[in-house]
Amino acid sequence: MFYENLEKILKQKNLTLNKLAKGTGLAQSPTSRWKNGTIPNGETIIKICKYLEISSDYLLDLNPEAPPTLTDQEQELLEHFRQCSPGEQDSILLLANAGAAKAEQEKESSISKNVG
User: Fold this and answer.
1) Does the N terminus or the C terminus of the chain have fewer Cβ atoms within 10 A?
2) Do residues 61 and 5 touch, judged by C-beta distance below 8 A?
3) How many angstroms separate the most distant Cα atoms in the chain?
4) Cβ atoms within 10 A of the Cβ of 49, count?
5) Are 13 and 51 found together in one domain?
6) Residue-by-residue pLDDT tens, the chain, 116 positions
7) Contacts of 39 (CB under 8 A, 6+ apart)
């Protein structure tokens, strides 16, 4: 199941095993063994999961629920967020929480208008 899950994630992210190997600093030779059912060691799994930004539970089929796939805009936002200082990250989170609360209020208001 490991390889099938890995293939699925690579396809969703428009990546190849070759790009994965280069991005994680792994040799390409082990990747061919994965096709035959070999599961990489823990250190390699950690590298793969960090690079692909996925859970090891999903990759190892411990949690079959598919991980959420970020849109290009969400991925860009995440990359910018990670470049910010902790204080800037706190400010961004406050703004995002306020926006989410406002959206929730508007949704509830809309529902109550439709009911009444």
Assistant:
1) C
2) yes
3) 65
4) 19
5) yes
6) 889 989 988 988 889 988 998 999 988 778 778 888 889 999 999 999 999 988 888 888 887 666 666 778 888 888 898 899 999 999 999 999 999 999 888 888 888 777 65
7) 2, 45, 60
- Residue whose entry in the numeric block shows the structure tokens 């936002």: 77
If you ran DSSP here, which 8-state letter would residue 104 be given?
H
Burial of 52 (0-12, 13-18, 19+ CB in 10 A): buried
Determine the Cα–Cα distance for residues 77 and 81; give it in Å rounded to an integer: 6
Phi and psi torsions of 55, nearest 5°:
-85, 140
Q: Is 113 exposed, middle or buried (0-12, 13-18, 19+ CB in 10 A)?
A: exposed
Same domain, 8 and 55: yes
Structure tokens at 113: 């208008």
Task: Give me the CATH number covering residue 48.
Answer: 1.10.260.40
What's the predicted TM-score (pTM) here? 0.56
Structural domain contains residue 28: yes
